[in-house]
Design a protein that fits this description.
- The protein is of the alpha/beta class.
- Among the domains are: about 260 residues, no CATH class; about 150 residues, Galactose-binding lectin (Jelly Rolls, Sandwich).
- The chain is about 25% helix and about 25% strand.
- The protein is built from 14 helices and 29 strands.
- Strands 2, 3, 4, 5, 6, 7, 8, 9, 11 and 13 form a ten-stranded mixed beta sheet that branches. Strands 17, 18, 20, 21, 24, 27 and 29 form a seven-stranded antiparallel beta sheet that branches.
- The radius of gyration is 26 Å and the shape is globular.
Length: about 600
């Protein structure tokens, strides 16, 4: 008699395949078939006009005893268990172990047949200490069809449990020459020498998450350029051309530091004129995010610092990781994703001819194009239609239930519980209607000024600079210029109760290209500055004086006694002029 778990899995899988084949899932022009062969059938790669890649999160093998180090780390804590606590997502391959070559061959086959021709693996390395290498080195690189799929490295040089401490930031010395050369040697010996490593202009591609920290740790662009020379020498000594560095942002100094191009990861959010705003615990419509992506692409390509690899987003729903604090995109469909992909074609750099999708398999963040039970191959078919000659019918093969069960990290009772959870309703959080309102060049309130800074004398009246020139006051105007990334104007001991405040008003003159200001705050009850205590409002960066009024109703952490205000605006070289800043009371 068939075990209960296997019967349950077989029944669920049969229903899934029948649903996809019958067209009850939005998979256009594809027939889903179960493959009964001993191994994954060979891929039939699709030709595309644009070279398309996808980021890969290599963390789906983790379980007891499978860490990369002798000590226990998060490598042994399977994130599948977090995903299984939510009704979705549910991959077609189940809760697979992605360090298995056979699992990687299914990924390679599905990707190549839908126009995705390279994987960009998230890669965690800090001064010789590494995380999550097993998927790439024991899975993908050992896969039968690996040589048909290009790959490259996305160096995630951000905080993690380095030195066995939770979310510890790498130190500056970890980003300096000695550590960078050691990393380059490892990359060259293990990846760059392989014939399927992605190259541009004949050079191995390395994507860097945080270019800014690399440049700062080396004392600026010139210092990092010297470190890059040492890295490239290590490559040349091994017969490998110099690096083709891709920065994940337009940070100051990337050109002078030796970066060759830029790209992005996720631009999830909404435009300023949207009636929705990106917030934890709430959702925004997918259509609004599609509009926002095009706004970002338009801004980047209007005056590019370097050639740009178009970054496309799939979705965001981080409830498996963040629970009730997750930000969510609602109304996800393959058709809406296809619209985003089609919009991206206008912004593809003609020289690079590259696009990259976030992501293949970020199941914990809801960002994936890998087939799942809800949409089947719908997202991959959208890529196929937009970027390749992928119209018309084509078969999509999937493994048998027995194969899928053999791939699973979760077993027995865990699978049974996940199956029960899957049946539960999973409603999106409420839509996040915009709570921040602003006016530009409209009459000022006729209410009391609770606190004001007029700059009528020679003093900055308590405002302090960070990453900007020392503040000067002349003719009743506060003057400064931005010197580096992350410029800030800060004032402490504000002493205004937010329940009494109607709006912040200020009169500014900023140059072309300065399109927004980000306002951070702390209160007596919330004394630490953080990303969740901030909001943006638009500016007219045209070198003229404008008056701005910004209002936000007291709620959540924007409540109580205001202590610190911080205004972040401008970029290196921008001159900033402030006539006055005032906190007006509410209308009574």
């Amino acid at each position: 008699m068939m075990p209960v778990i296997e019967r349950m899995w077989r029944t669920c899988w049969t229903v899934t395949v029948l649903s996809l084949s019958a067209g009850r899932c939005p998979v256009q022009g594809a027939e889903v078939k179960v493959w009964n062969g001993d191994y994954v059938p060979p891929p039939r790669p699709l030709k595309t006009e644009v070279t398309v890649g996808a980021y890969v999160f290599p963390g789906w093998y983790r379980d007891e005893g499978k860490g990369d180090y002798p000590y226990k780390t998060h490598d042994e804590d399977s994130e599948w268990r977090q995903v299984a606590k939510c009704p979705k997502p549910r991959p077609l391959l189940g809760f697979y172990e992605d360090s298995l070559p056979e699992v990687n061959d299914w990924h390679i086959k599905w990707a190549l047949e839908h126009g995705v021709s390279f994987f960009c693996f998230d890669w965690y390395w800090n001064a010789g200490e590494h995380r999550l290498l097993r998927t790439l080195e024991r899975g993908f690189l050992k896969a039968k069809y690996c040589d048909q799929m290009k790959f490259c490295i996305h160096w995630c040089n951000h905080g993690l449990d380095w030195r066995n401490k939770k979310w510890n930031r790498p130190l500056d010395e970890d980003f300096r020459t000695k550590a960078l050369v050691e990393m380059s040697e490892y990359l060259a010996d293990n990846y760059f020498k392989l014939p399927n490593y992605l190259r541009l202009e004949g050079r191995p591609v390395l994507v860097v998450w945080d270019a800014k920290s690399l440049i700062q740790a080396n004392g600026g662009a010139a210092g990092f350029a010297a470190a890059l020379d040492a890295m490239n020498k290590a490559l040349r000594d091994r017969g490998i051309p110099t690096l083709y560095l891709l920065a994940m942002s337009n940070s100051q100094g990337i050109r002078a530091g030796g970066f060759a191009a830029t790209t992005g990861y996720g631009y999830y959010g909404t435009d300023y004129d949207s009636k929705y705003e990106w917030r934890a615990g709430r959702s925004v419509p997918y259509d609004e995010v599609v509009k926002h992506y095009e706004s970002v692409w338009r801004g980047i390509t209007a005056d590019p610092v370097l050639p740009y690899v178009v970054a496309i987003g799939s979705n965001w729903d981080s409830r498996p990781r963040a629970g009730d604090n997750a930000a969510v995109i609602s109304g996800k469909t393959p058709a809406k994703f296809e619209t985003m992909c089609r919009n991206s074609l206008k912004y593809v750099d003609k020289g690079l001819n590259l696009a990259i999708i976030e992501a293949w398999n970020e199941w914990g963040e809801g960002s994936f194009i890998e087939p799942d039970k809800e949409f089947g191959f719908g997202f991959l078919d959208a890529v196929r239609r937009v970027f390749g000659d992928g119209t018309g019918n084509h078969p999509d093969y999937v493994p048998t239930p027995e194969k899928i069960a053999s791939f699973s990290v979760l077993k027995g009772d865990e699978l049974a519980k996940a199956s029960e959870v899957e049946k539960q309703p999973y409603l999106d959080p409420p839509l996040s209607l915009r709570t921040v309102e602003w006016k530009i060049d409209e009459p000022l309130p006729d209410t009391k000024v609770l606190r004001g800074w007029e700059f009528d004398g020679a003093s900055s009246e308590g405002w302090m600079p960070y990453h900007i020139e020392p503040l000067a006051v002349r003719d009743g105007v506060l003057l400064t210029a931005v010197t580096t990334e992350d410029p800030q104007l800060i004032v402490d001991n504000v002493g205004v109760t937010l329940d009494d405040m109607g709006c912040l008003a200020l009169r500014l003159r900023v140059p072309d290209g300065v399109s927004s200001c980000e306002l951070f705050w702390t209160t007596a009850a919330e004394p630490t500055m953080s990303a969740d205590k901030a909001f943006r409002f638009p500016l007219k960066g045209e070198g003229q004086w404008h008056t701005y009024q910004v209002a936000k109703a007291a709620e959540g952490k924007w409540s109580g006694a205001l202590k610190v205000l911080r205004l972040d605006l401008g970029g290196p070289g921008d001159k900033l002029e402030v006539d006055w800043i005032r906190l007006y009371g509410k209308q009574r």
